[in-house]
Every structure is written in C-alpha cells, then in structure tokens.
Design a protein that fits this description.
Number of helices: 12
CATH architecture of the largest domain: 3-Layer(aba) Sandwich
Shape: elongated
Strand order of the largest sheet: 4-3-2-8-9-1-10
Protein name: Deacetylase sirtuin-type domain-containing protein
Keywords: Metal-binding, NAD, Transferase, Zinc
Largest sheet: 7 strands, mixed
CATH class of the largest domain: Alpha Beta
Pfam families: SIR2
GO molecular function: histone deacetylase activity, NAD-dependent; metal ion binding; NAD+ binding
Strand content: 5-15%
Helix content: 25-40%
Radius of gyration: 21 Å
Distance between the termini: 40 Å
Oligomer: single chain
Structural class: alpha/beta
Number of strands: 10
C-alpha cells in the first residue's frame, strides 16, 4: 500500500475497503478522490466531510469505537496524543498496586478527590452530540467507548458499552455494591477536610493550577487523576465500604485488570452485526479495544479511523485508505451528522 507523509499531529482518517486506495489531502500531492471515484473537493475539510458522509450513506449498520481523543475538546486530556500524559512520563495505577497497597490507595484517592470536579463538570462536545444524533436517526447502531467520562451518555447516546467502566461510580471490591461518585466524593472530602482546604489554598496561591486548558493538559489525566507533586499522603483517610468494610475502587478497569467478560461478549455481538466500523480518537494501542477492529476486519467490514497520528490498525495494515489533514474531529463529525441526518 502507498501512503503520503503529512503534517505532524495531523488528523488521520483511514477507511478499510479492498477496492479503495490510500490518499492524503496534505500539501498539493495527487491522490484518489471520493468513494465514487469522482474528483476530490478543493478543501481538505470538505474532503473529510464528503468521505465520511459517503461512508455513512453507503453503510447499513455503523458501529462506533471511541477513545480519549474524542473528549479532548471537552477539556479532558488524552493519554497518547501530542500533549498526552504518557508523553510526560505518567504511569497509571495498576489494579494489583491499588488492591495490595494502602499507601497507593491513599495517594490515588487524594489525587482523584482533587481532580474529580473537573471531570464531573465536563460537558459533551460536538463529536459526542453528533454520534447521539446519528444514533437517534438510526444511522449509528451504537458506541463502544474506552472512555470512562460518560460524555456519550450525557450527549444522549443510549446504546453505549463502557468498555473500561465509568468514573462517576465507585464499587466495593468485596460485596460489589456500587455507590454514586458524588456520594463518595462527599464522604472523602468530609473525612479529609483539612487536606482539601490546603489544596484550595494552593490553588489560590497558584501553586496548584487546574483551571486553565493548559493546566488541565499538564496536571490532569483522563480519569480525573490530578498531579499534586506531594511526597506524603499518609494523612489521607479513605473510608471503607459501609456495608461490609471492603475496599472501594473507582468502577473502572485499571491496568492489569480484565474487562468483564459480559461486556466483551456484548461488544463482539455489536461488531459481528455491523457492516462498517468508525473508530474515533484512539491509537488502538490497547488490545482491549483493538481486538474489535481486528474482528471487524476479519468480517470484511469497512473500517474508518479518525485520529491524530498513526494507529495500530495502520501499522498492521488493516486499513487500505488513509486520509490526513488538520481538522478537529468535533467539527468534522458535527458537520457529517448534519449532512447525513439533516440540519435539525
């Protein structure tokens, strides 16, 4: 397959179909046109709108797989993007460390307690609303998301599989009883009033900044974990489960943990029913999501990928067309939804 170079951090749209060719809108290089073989539009953004609109119109059952990149316009940082936390040396908490180390749990909950409000206040962007609009019109069969922010739900999508869990809920690891995150936040802040007052004072003195977009990109993670740069968390009080005294944990899949088998099974059922898969905002480096792209490819489904930078699917040659430009995926999907469904 042939591909073209493009500007650094460019948005990638890859569409898998054995009868199609690679093309790029970068620079003035020549490339193949839209799906019907006609000449490409003059504007790169218009090209993207045309391609993805046609992708939906020529599909009967489109499934969408999303990652952290779809939520960056909502002020929630990603992991592997140009400003992602992994680029700054962030190492996520593992399930084993959380369950076996009290000091690690104190550190985790202190940081999460401070960062929670930013995630709780986040609102869906046009990409989330576009997918909800497409679903309501019967043009999107559902969403499998790696995100834990619940923004698809807030936007109005109803058929959503939260593959990696949800940050708005905690769950006892012993009796499995769930608790709304807001209730847990109240319990945590009540048990750590002095600590939270110190954090507020640090923010006033600009020693801890979480408000601006730049500060969020630097000091926050996609799950609400805040970078506090503290060495001692021994003063943190972490309440136990009120029902059984067990350990409470965010209801998310941490590294080293497994996605629940029932969710994996449901996701495979969705993939097996779709004739097209749209992937948005993920590099597909994590196998828990990548396996669904492989399954779709095995089923000969068309695969479109919208993401900043190269994806694992491209390296493994699961896509036969690559489109690159600098468009914002929220703007792109918003306009595609309008073209497919209409301006309502």
């Amino acid at each position: 397959m042939k591909s073209f170079t493009c500007a650094r951090n460019a948005l990638t749209i890859a569409i898998s179909n054995p009868q199609l060719r690679y093309f790029s809108a970068a620079g003035t290089q020549s490339y193949r046109g839209p799906l019907d073989g006609s000449a490409p539009l003059a504007s790169p953004m218009q090209n993207e709108i045309e391609w993805l609109t046609t992708f939906f119109q020529q599909s009967k059952n489109v499934l969408v797989l999303t990652g952290a990149g779809i939520s960056t316009s909502s002020g929630i940082p990603d992991y592997r993007g140009p400003n992602g936390s992994y680029k700054r040396g962030h190492k996520p908490m593992t399930h084993s460390e959380f369950m076996t180390s009290e000091s690690s749990r104190k550190r985790f909950w202190a940081r999460s307690m401070v960062g929670w409000q930013n995630v709780s206040d986040a609102t869906p962007n046009n990409a989330h609303f576009a997918l909800a609009k497409l679903e309501a019109a019967g043009r999107c069969a559902g969403v499998i998301t790696q995100n834990v922010d619940r923004l698809h739900f807030k936007a109005g999508s109803t058929n959503v599989i939260d593959l990696h869990g949800r940050v708005d809920q905690v769950r006892c690891q012993c009796c499995k009883k769930p608790m709304p995150r807001n209730e847990w936040q109240y319990a945590m802040t009540s048990a750590n009033a002095s600590f939270m007052e110190n954090m507020k004072q640090m923010q006033k003195e600009k020693k801890l900044q979480l408000d601006s977009a730049a500060a969020k990109n630097t000091n926050l993670r996609a799950d609400g974990d805040a970078e506090l740069n503290l060495e001692d968390y021994s003063m943190i009080n972490v309440p136990s489960c009120g029902s059984c005294g067990g350990i409470l944990k965010l209801d998310v899949v941490m590294f080293g943990d497994n996605v629940p088998a029932d969710l994996v099974g449901r996701a495979y059922e969705h993939v097996d029913r779709c004739d097209s898969l749209l992937v948005v905002g993920t590099s597909l480096e994590v196998f828990s999501a990548y396996r669904f792209v492989r399954r779709a490819h095995q089923n000969s489904a068309k695969i479109a990928i919208v993401n900043y930078g190269e994806t694992r699917a491209e390296r493994d040659k699961l896509a036969s067309i690559v489109f690159k430009s600098d468009a914002n995926c929220a703007e792109l999907l918003h306009e595609v939804a309008n073209q497919v469904v209409g301006y309502k």
